[in-house]
Specification:
2 helices; alpha+beta; 12% strand; two-stranded antiparallel sheet; 52 residues; single chain
Length: 52
Protein backbone atom coordinates (compact mmCIF):
# COMPACT_ATOMS: atom_id res chain seq x y z
CA UNK A 1 0.00 0.00 0.00
CA UNK A 2 1.43 3.37 -0.96
CA UNK A 3 0.84 6.65 0.83
CA UNK A 4 -1.67 8.06 -1.63
CA UNK A 5 -3.80 4.93 -1.54
CA UNK A 6 -3.66 4.78 2.28
CA UNK A 7 -4.70 8.44 2.49
CA UNK A 8 -7.56 8.01 0.02
CA UNK A 9 -8.86 4.91 1.84
CA UNK A 10 -8.97 6.77 5.16
CA UNK A 11 -10.38 9.94 3.60
CA UNK A 12 -13.12 8.09 1.72
CA UNK A 13 -14.91 6.85 4.85
CA UNK A 14 -13.26 8.16 8.06
CA UNK A 15 -16.07 6.92 10.33
CA UNK A 16 -15.65 3.31 9.27
CA UNK A 17 -11.94 2.51 9.44
CA UNK A 18 -10.77 -0.93 10.49
CA UNK A 19 -8.03 -1.04 13.11
CA UNK A 20 -5.79 -3.14 10.87
CA UNK A 21 -6.15 -0.60 8.04
CA UNK A 22 -5.24 2.25 10.35
CA UNK A 23 -2.17 0.39 11.60
CA UNK A 24 -1.08 -0.38 8.04
CA UNK A 25 -1.52 3.27 7.03
CA UNK A 26 0.52 4.40 10.04
CA UNK A 27 3.38 2.15 8.95
CA UNK A 28 3.21 3.51 5.41
CA UNK A 29 3.53 7.06 6.75
CA UNK A 30 6.68 6.24 8.74
CA UNK A 31 5.35 5.23 12.15
CA UNK A 32 6.41 1.99 13.79
CA UNK A 33 4.96 -0.06 16.60
CA UNK A 34 6.65 -0.95 19.85
CA UNK A 35 4.90 -3.41 22.10
CA UNK A 36 1.23 -3.63 22.88
CA UNK A 37 -1.27 -6.42 22.73
CA UNK A 38 -4.51 -6.68 20.81
CA UNK A 39 -5.86 -3.23 20.02
CA UNK A 40 -3.41 -1.52 22.38
CA UNK A 41 -0.33 -0.34 20.51
CA UNK A 42 2.51 2.04 21.23
CA UNK A 43 3.16 3.98 18.03
CA UNK A 44 6.44 5.81 17.53
CA UNK A 45 7.56 8.18 14.82
CA UNK A 46 11.14 8.63 13.73
CA UNK A 47 11.51 12.14 12.31
CA UNK A 48 14.27 11.00 9.96
CA UNK A 49 12.03 8.48 8.20
CA UNK A 50 9.72 11.01 6.48
CA UNK A 51 10.45 11.33 2.77
CA UNK A 52 8.67 13.81 0.53
Amino acid sequence: MERRQAYENLKHNPKNVRFEDLCRAAEVFGFHFRGGKGSHRVILYDRGSWKY
